[in-house]
Structure formats: C-alpha cells, structure tokens
Amino acid sequence: MEVFLRNLPSDLSQEALEAQLTPFMRELRIVDFICLKPRRKTFGHIAFLHKADAERFLAVHGEQEVPSAGHKPRFQAHLHLMGTEVFCKPSNRKIQEFTLRALQYSAEQRGGNGTQERDQQPQFQLDIDGFSCGYCSFNEDQLVFTPEVAWSQKGVFTLKGRNFKLTTQDGYLLRIPTSSIIALVHYDDGLLTFILSEVPYFFLEHNKAPLTMALPILSLGKSTITHFRLPALSGEHATIIGQCLVYQFRAPALDVIRCMMSLKESDLSVFYHDLTPKQALRSSARGLHSDLQTLLDQLSEWTRKGDLPFGILYQLQALVYNAYLHPTTVQILGSKLCAISQNRRQRGLAPISADAVRTLLNTVHWALPFDNPEDFQPDPLLATLRLDREAKMDFTSQKSVSADLSSDHVLIHRVSVSPTRITFHGPEREPQNRVIRKFPGHHDYFIRVQFCDERGSDLFFNPKHDYEQIFQRFRTVLTLGIQIAGRTYTFLGFSHSSLRSHSVWFSSPFIDGDGSLQTSSSIIKALGNFSGITSPARCAARIGQAFTETPFTLPVQNVVVENIEDITSSDKSRVFSDGIGTISLEVVERIWKGIPQKKGTPTCFQVRLGGAKGMLSLDSRLKGSVIRIRPSMVKFSTDDMRDLGICNMASEPYPLVLNRQIVKILEDIGVPDDWFFSLQNARLRQLQLITSSADKTATFLKDAKIADSIGLHKLFRWCYWMDLDYREDPFLRSIVEAMILRELRLLKHKSRIPVPQGMTLYGIIDETGYLKADEVFITFDMISGLYAAPPGPGPVLVTRSPALYDGDIQVARNVIPPPDHPLAKHKNCIIFSQQGVRDLPSQLSGGDLDGDLYHVIWDPIVAKVHTSPPANYGRVMPHDIGRAVTTKDMAYFFVEFMKTDCVGIIATRHMILADQEPEGTHASGCKQLAELHSTAVDYSKTGVPVDMAKIPGTGRFRPDFMAPGPLAQVYSKSKITLTELSSHAAYDEDGPSHILYYKSDRILGKLYRAIDEKKIWHERIDTGPSPDEDSFWARFVSYLTSRHSLSQPDSCTVDEALRLRSAYNDAIMAVMNDFSEHPTRPISELEVVTGIIITKTGVHSRRQRDRASKLKDEFDRVSSWITDLIRQGGRDLCLACLCLPAKDASALWQRVNC
C-alpha cells in the first residue's frame, strides 16, 4: 500500500525524506517502507510492504478534515518535517511492481541475517566554532600541532555512514572518510584533531557558489547539481593541502566529550592528548609552503651538480609530497646523504642505493601521541638507512632485487595526481614499449602519471556534483607538467588501455646516447607523420600505438615487408581482412627462437610494426623472410620500421568462461535453464572437492598458476605423498582458501561459469579461400589432455565480449580442412571465412581481426538455437577540429574522456533493463543501450561522446544478483573471514544514491541464489584441523632429512638463511606497500603470493584487475630472485631456509630428532 504526501519541502531529496521519516517509523515499529519523491517537487509517496503498517502510520500522522465555512474542505496536518506541515493520505495509485519486489526482498534478507531494523549509528553531532589545517611534529618529547591555514566559519560536524561531515554556514562541506583516519585526538579544551592518511573531500553548495562558478551550470540547465567539488577551500589552503593532513576542530568541551563517548564502540584509534596549536614552532616565519619551496630549490641544485642520483632525489621529494616528513627534515637528511655519497666516491665504494632511501616510505609513519620523537629526526633516520645497507650489501653482493630485470621490463616511477595533491610512488616494473626501448639508460626521464581520486581509485562521479574545478586542475597539470628534483616532466602520450585507466606518459628533456636533445615533441615527431590527422582522439590513438606494451621484439632489417590489398565483399562495403596480415614460416621460426620456451610455437601474433598494428598469421605458402601488411593495418606513415613489436600471441587457448552479458543473451535466444545449472553445479562440485585431498589441491593450484615460479603445487603434492595435512599450516591453508573464495565469488557475483565444450581464441582470416560463407575452422592445443579435443564438423556458437545486442551471438559451421592444407598449420585460433555478404567478426558486437578474442561453444544443446539478426550500426565519423592536432589538444581530450566516458554506466543500465523488461535483450530499450555502448566504446578513437540524455534511466531498483555479498576480510596477515554485509546505514547525501534490490526471476537471479557462499565457506572450505604450524613443519623436515640423509645446518648457514629471509621480507613488504591503494594499509603477503587482491565484496574495479596482473609478475620476479640465491647455497642452505617457518628453529630440530 502507498501513502501520498503533499506540501513537502521542494529541496528535500528522496533519501533525506526517508531519513526524516525514520524516527517516526521507529516509534511505530515499522521497518518495511520505501520513500519515493521526484526531484524538486512538493509531493511524494511512502510505499509500505504491509497494509497494516500503512494504516497504523495514517492513524497517527494522516491528515484530518476540519469543518470549513466554505465549500472547499480544509485539512489539518499531523506530520511536521523540517518545520513544514506535511499532509498524508492513502494514495489512489497501485504500488509499483519493482517497489513491491524490493520491499519483499529487503524483508527476506533481513529475516535471513537477523537484522531487525535499519542500522543505527553513533549520535555524533558537534557545533563547530572554527577549524584549521596543519601538521604534527615533536617539540622535544611533546607532540604538538602547527596550523598553517585557519577558518573562523561556524558549522555542524556529523557522522553519516562511513564519513565525518562538516557543513559550514557559508555553504562549504568537508567530508572525511573513516577509512582515512589514522587517529582521533581530543582534549579538555574542546579541540578535536583528525590525523589523516589522505586529504578530505571538499565541496561547495551550488546556491552559495560565486556566479562565475554557477553560471556554466545554469546555462547548461543542470538542475540536478547540488554541490561543486573543490580542489581546496582557498588559494592559501591549496599551497599546503598535500603536505598537511591534520585537521583540528574547535567545539564546546562538553560536547566533544559526549561525542567521544559515542565512538567508544568504533574501531577508530582515539587518543586523549593536549594538541593545543603552537604557532611559534614553525621552522620559518613564512610557514611550510616556504620550507617546501626551499627544499625544491635545493633538490634542483643537487640535480644540477650531480651530488645525488635522481632516484634518491625522487625518493626525498616523495617523503615530503606524500606527507611523511617535514621539508626541513628531508633537506637535512639530503645534505647528510650528499656528504656520505661524496665520501663513498672518494673511497671508491658503491654509490648509495635509491632502494635504501625508498624503504623510508614504507617504514616512516605519521606522528602520533606517545611515539618516540627520535624516530622522526634526520640522524636516527639516516642511521636506519645505513644499518640496513651495511647489513645486506655484502650478503647480496650489491645485487638489488629491483635491478634483477629481464629485458622486457624496465623500472619506471609513477606519479599520482588527485583532485587535491600529487604523490610519488615506485619505481615499478613496466613492460617495454617502442618509445622506452629507443632510449636505454634514460628510463628515469619517463614517468607514468595516474589521474585518480584521493585513495588511488578511479574518480567517482556523482550526478549531483559538478567536477569542473577538478578537471581544470587536471588540465593544468597536463599543460604545465610536474616538477621533480629540478626536472620538468610534460605530457607525452598514452595508449588505448592507459586512456581507459586514466594514465598517461610524461617525459623530461634529456640528451640521448647519440648526443641529441630529446623532448616530448622530438620523441613524438620521430615516431611518424601525424600532421594529416585533424582529430585529437584519432591522433592520440595513433601515437598511442607506440606506447602499447611490446614485451618481445624482432629486428626486421633482413625481412621483406610487402603491402597487399585488403579482402573485401563483392560490393567493397565490408573489409573481411580488417586488421590482419600474414607472415612466412621463416620469420615465425625466428620469433619462436626469441620467445620463452613456455610460449610454445604460436602461429598468430598481435604486433606493432612502424605505423601498422594488428595481427599477423602464418601463411605457410610464403617463401623466405616475408611479412605482408594490409591498408587496414596502417594507421600512419613512418620511416621507423626497424623492429617488429609483439604485444601478444596465440601461445595457448583460453578456456571459455561465461559472463552475465552472454548468459542473458543465451537465455533470451532459448537456451534452457537446465544447461546453465548443470555447468554451474559442476563447477561448484569442483570447488568443493579441491580441499578433499592435497593431491586435488595441488592440481588446482597448478592449473591456476598460483606461485608457479616456485612450483608451489609441488609442495602440496609432497604433503599428499607424506600424508600430511597442509591445513595445519595457517598460511598454506589461507592460500587455498583465498583461491577458492575468488572462484566462488566470480561464479556467484559475475556468473563466471566454465564451459567445457567451449574456448576463447584469437580470430584470423582464411587466406586461402577454403572456407565458405559462415564457415569457421576452430583449432587449439589440448595441453597434454588438459582440454577436450577441438570440435568436429557441425554448428557452433560464436560471440565476443562485450555482448549487449541480442544478435551479438551467431551460429557458424565448423569445417575441418585436410591435414596437408595450409589452414591445418594453425593452432589456438578461430579462422573466419573471406566469403559472403558480411564478415562474421563484424556481426559480433563490431569485432575485427586486429587482435580480438572470440568465444566459441560447440555444446550440441546450445549450438542449434535460433539466433537474432546482428546489429548494423552506422560508422561514427571522428571529431574534426579542422587543423593539425597539438599536444594541448590531446591533453584536453584526455580530460574530456575522463569526464564523459560512460561505458560502465551503459553496461550496468543494460543489465538492469534486460532483467526488468519482459522481452529481455530483445526490448527496444536494451537495443538502444547496446548501440550507445558501441558508440561509447569507440569514443576513445572517434572523440565523439555519448549523449548522456539518450541513456534510458532505470531508477533505484536493481536485481538481487547485482547486490554486494558478504564482506571478506584478512586479519592476522593471512586469515580470511566472511561476515554478513550490514544493511543500509544512515544515508550520506553526498555519496551514491541509495540502491534497492529485488528478487530477479530471470536466469541470472536463479543462478545467483543457487549459491550460498557463506554456507559453502563455513561447511566445506573453512574447515579442517586446528593450526599446528611447528608440528607440520617438524614432520615435513623429518621426512626430507631421513629421505636425503641430511643433518642439522650449522649456525653460519642458519645465519645466512636468516639474512635471506630478511631480504625476502623487505622485498615482499615493498610489494605489499606498492600495490596497496591505501598509504597506511599495505596488502597482505597472502595477496602477494596468490596474485589476488582481496576486496571486501569480491568485486574488483578495472584498476584492481590491472594491478593484480602486475602483482603476479612482481611476486614471480621476487620469488625467482630469492630461490636462485637459496639454490646457490646448496642443500644445507635450502634445509636451513625450510626450517625458518617455525617460530623456533632449534625447537623444531628437537622435535625432528625425537
């Protein structure tokens, strides 16, 4: 039942209305209700799940008719909200379907987890008399606060959701996420101090903004904008905002005490300490900004004189820019390092390692009450570095972990630009690309610049906020560059993938190996001729080819490069060979010799050659060393044709795993539910059987390639042979649990269902003309029986991701060529026909052959379904500015892309609408979204954004399979727990809209609810014997010593093992910090070893997925380095290292010898 409300305040939002009504509902013990209110209207509705609740509400708060002398009846209101009379009466409309389903779902979920009512939060509200921003430091042994900027505005400070929020009288809003709070410090004088790890978020109410800021919004008709996001609260604030992460608020003393009492059950670190501001303690009369400028001048001077290597100067600037140390402290530290460096040069010793200075970024922490003041002084900091270096330099023979690089990777510094500040990170390993490879020995003149939010994640866009001030800041950085230790790094370019991850390359001028001055302009000019391109997006995409990762290269000076024509349809309207050329066997064999043996003998390669990009496939009919490229591959002209860069290759097939988009289309074209359930249940059985024996666990880890650089699966195989239960060791147990949890969550939350009779393969064209229209040839390695044999002749389903249009899945006929046919030489690919009216790849969500992967299914249950006609979108012409493109044009396009990229929004709305529409993906609204998605995908190359007004809205209701799952948390370094996700807490009006979920009756909802991850976790996975780490390793070592007749290592060998472990711990700790998105919360060693970043909800952002792939490479590198050192020491050292997991190695040996 619904209740109609009138005379509501027009500015009251839907969520704020719900917050206002919650106390009234709580008094009436009403839980199941939803508020519905249009923007800027004075009416709304309350939807109740139970009619009795609605009647009880109306009995107390319903309007009452009163006698009137006139003919028009008068009513008396019995509900007052924000000082306004609100009239309530039964609604004359029927409750909406998805509103009712959302109420029912909410009630079911609440009944399932025992939550009886909406979450309540601590009653935290303070009237603020003023606040300031500054930093903490030690005056002798006393921690003091030094303010740099102060504001006298009064305001209200509250806790809403996961944020503290200050709203000032003049319209400014300051938001502090609780996750960024290092410590809360309070005292009797009414001062409340927040020591933070990141800068707060700043906003200004739209109706209190200056006209210059509000006018563009008014002219564009953006009536939904409520706040402007700001890079700082003032110009003075902007100069110190990045280095001052302490905010102090002044309030009545008794109110502060009351609020602190309300937080006693929270997990915040609260200190009682006197932090009265000490203005006199500033190191200079002009404050921190002046000290910072002095330091930057000094760093520039050291660079000019060559007193210290750039790598060390970069780390010194990072210590200040990341707000770890005060500029004056770093300047003193730098001066002492200069003296040490000069002394070492005079004595002929090795230079100071930048890695040693970098360790300060991982060890220095924010100053807190009761810390040791000496920990923040230059001499003790320097002593820590020197002790660290001297303890390890001889042992590692000056061999740095970071220097142990293969030729396909380089070390590159990374700089993050957020809405408020710039922070320094790295150096980190980056795959080689064409530009970096041209300048060996000059890699520190290039940096990766990441534009992101304060926490390192993608900038979150709230439709209620205007971000123009933030984007203007980003434009300024892209235009003026970044100053680092006397060098000016300016915009260079970006690849297609880095554009989507909001990352660009910057470079600083340098003299190359030939004595030539290299600037960003000269580097771009040497890549090729781009003068004829008049579209910023297209020009950036063409230049971006040079920044594509090319781990392998092949010199082509002795290779004949020929140009051949594209294969087209008879009317020339379709290019069948779009993006693909050919390569002779002689060249392919040269590639095989230059790639790692584990890559096998692939026959298709994704390449970059001069201005050409795409695939090269083997044509065994070609004689000699020949590469043939087609016009569709050539994107710009260049004389630089020295190397063939290989981005990827078809070295192995990829098992097909479904996703939610493909599942939905398959359902809509008639695939029965039973087929999906049979596959999902088979996968569930596999996951549940993994822990049934160590042998099955070993197979699982081997197939998943977890820590394969050290052969981790072999350890589990040994446990199986020795009849040892690996679950007695907490870390080994957690590795398995983390892997199963990831697979379980992908299965439930992403419908990542493996298809045994399916595969994902690179697509190439039949160069011979053997295949007829709509025919394909599917071929791949079975990898020693790991995969089923390729399909025989017959129908197959072919698609590619992303698939949103109902015709993005098509049926083709698989044909097997004779054994001696040229097509039979191929493997790990799907070969498409060159015949017919339209090429098949273009029918599959606009695919081509420049490196696209295609999904194939030959299961007879689904291969014969009736598919829908494919989409046929018109070509979008690139945005043309009518002149040559400049660097500034491309930089500005980068920012515009950040502003208007809506691929994710469209895909999400398509998923919601496809679930809600009776016709599913066949519905016109879904087809419209699919076309808009195609335009959005091409935006990076055309510069033509999607008109956001054309995107159909889906409201606040979403199907249950899009809801977050239980929270996963890692504690005690490796222990994983699953806890129930709490229901919606007090809504934060500045956060994302309050989403409501309903039970989906489509296949995605059914599959989702069929998996109870908490039940599976607790009953089948998180079970086993109690941890007994020492006993486990004692029995393991006992077996090995008796098998190989080994004796206890001597003390020298044990000491060497301890030093090795220390080196390993340092390297792993560096990785844990480098790959964390939070400066004070490194990821766990468990995440490093498994290569899985464990998120609370199991859903990874695009950036987390990218970082996870690099994380695995980083662990492989560190583990290979340390195992090489262990092996060099022989059996005794190996045994000594094996004994170290025990808390007491000598006690372990006593247990071994018993």
Protein architecture, described:
- Keywords: Nucleotidyltransferase, RNA-binding, RNA-directed RNA polymerase, Transferase.
- Belongs to the RdRP family.
- With 1154 residues, this protein is α+β, with helices and mostly antiparallel strands.
- Among the domains are: 2-113, RRM (RNA recognition motif) domain (Alpha-Beta Plaits), CATH 3.30.70.330; 125-281, no CATH class; 288-392, no CATH class; 409-547, no CATH class; 554-594 and 601-651, Barwin-like endoglucanases (Beta Barrel), CATH 2.40.40; 901-958, no CATH class; 1029-1152, no CATH class.
- 36% of the residues lie in helices and 21% in strands.
- It is built from 34 helices and 46 strands.
- The strands form 10 sheets. It has a 7-stranded mixed β-sheet with strand order 8-11-12-13-16-17-23. The chain has a 7-stranded mixed β-sheet with strand order 29-35-32-33-31-34-30.
- The longest helix has 27 residues, at 1102-1128.
- The chain is globular and about 100 Å long.
- The termini are far apart.
- Residues 387-406, 982-992 and 1143-1154 have low confidence and may be disordered.
